[in-house]
Every structure is written in structure tokens, then in C-alpha cells.
Design a protein that fits this description.
about 100 residues, alpha+beta, 4-stranded antiparallel sheet, 3 helices, 4 strands, about 45% helix, Thiamine_BP, MTH1187/YkoF-like, UPF0045_domain, UPF0045 protein
Length: about 100
């Protein structure tokens, strides 16, 4: 499964990079395959381990912010592994044609 999620602290002003870094740090320390871009962090693995990483990432932001917004999108396909890489490679292959 791949989960793309965004954690946004509310009530802390416009500069939220430091808070988002706390969440991303948790995901990276989980050891699960992950990728962060300007809008989302994507993480891949089994349901329980991915959802635990998301829960802990939200908790890291919640420790310092009075309110937290979470947006989450999941692709649940048990037979797929390395989807973070293979999905992008497929699109790039089509773009190269």
C-alpha cells in the first residue's frame, strides 16, 4: 500500500516548514520507503506499519501545534511492491516514447 499524506499545523503562523520537518523525520526514521515533495509525503508498506508512521508523524506535529490538519490518500494493492518507484518509471517510460 502507498499512502500520500499531508500534515499541516494550524494556529502557528505561515511558516510551517519546521513542523512539517518533524513529521517527515518520523516517516524517514520508520525505515519504510518514502518520498516527500512540495505537497505530500508518500510512504509504502503494509497497512499497520504505514498507518503507524502516519499516526506518529501527526503526533509529532501535534506536540507543538494547537491544531493539526491531515489529508490522506491511499492506494491499497497488496500484490504491488516498490510502487513508489515503479509507478513513476511507468509514466516516464510513456513520456519518453
Amino acid at each position: 500500500m502507498i499512502v500520500a499524506f499531508s500534515v499541516t499545523p494550524l494556529g502557528v503562523g505561515e511558516d510551517v516548514g519546521e513542523y512539517v520537518a518533524d513529521a517527515v523525520r518520523v516517516v524517514r526514521e520508520s525505515g519504510l520507503p518514502n518520498r516527500t515533495d512540495a505537497m505530500f509525503t508518500s510512504v509504502e508498506g503494509e497497512w499497520d506499519e504505514v498507518m503507524d508512521a502516519v499516526r506518529r508523524a501527526v503526533a509529532a506535529v501535534e506536540e507543538r501545534a494547537p491544531r493539526v490538519s491531515l489529508v490522506l490518500k491511499a492506494d491499497i494493492r497488496p500484490s504491488v511492491t516498490d510502487g513508489l518507484t515503479s509507478k513513476v518509471e511507468t509514466v516516464e517510460r510513456h513520456l519518453a516514447q
